Amino acid sequence: MNKSELLAAIAEKTNQSKAATGEFLDATIAVIEAAVASGDPVALVGFGTFKAAPRAAREGKNPKTGEKIKIAATTVPRFTAGAGFKALVAAGKAKKAAKK
Questions:
Q1: In what order do the strands lie in the sheet with 74-81?
Q2: Percentage of the chain surpassing pLDDT 90?
Q3: Are 64 and 77 in contact (CB under 8 A)?
Q4: Could you tell me the CA-to-CA distances from 70 to 7, 15, 44, 55, 63 in Å, in that order?
Q5: Which residues lie below 8 Å from residue 47, measured CB to CB, with a gap of 6+?
Q6: CB 56 within 8 A of CB 73
Q7: Fewer beta carbons within 10 angstroms: which end of the chain, N or C?
Q8: CA nearest 77: which of 27, 45, 42, 26?
Q9: pLDDT tens digits along 50-83
Q10: 5-19, 30-44, 85-99 — which is least confidently predicted?
Q11: What's the chain's average pLDDT?
């Protein structure tokens, strides 16, 4: 599902226009990005948590030349799925397996 399909599904479920739904989704994403970028986790109970996580410096390999390179330490965004979301996904996989 891409963003326009997501917007259409949300608009249908909430009886809102796609334009209003798009503004809401864009604002939601912007707020989550700003919070995580400033170091605050965003927890949506049952769905999951967005947070910033440190990634240690490491040694990598240039795929073109095979030469070893140093990759600097950085901070990356992480998403951890909540129990409700995990259970829903697991149940969906079980249904697909049962149909086969």
A1: 42-44, 48-55, 74-81
A2: 90
A3: no
A4: 41, 51, 36, 13, 13
A5: 81, 82, 84, 85
A6: yes
A7: C
A8: 42
A9: 999 999 999 999 999 999 999 999 999 999 999 9
A10: 85-99
A11: 93
Q: What's the one-letter identity of residue 10? A: I
Six token digits for residue 61: 């390999």
pLDDT at 5 over 60: yes
* 8 A C-beta contact, residue 52 and residue 36: yes
Res. 93: pLDDT tops 90: no
Q: In whole angstroms, give the CA distance from residue 90 to residue 61.
A: 36
**Residue 78 near residue 53 (C-beta atoms within 8 A):** yes
User: Got the DSSP string for 6-31?
Assistant: HHHHHHHHHT--HHHHHHHHHHHHHH
Contact 9, 20 (CB under 8 A): no
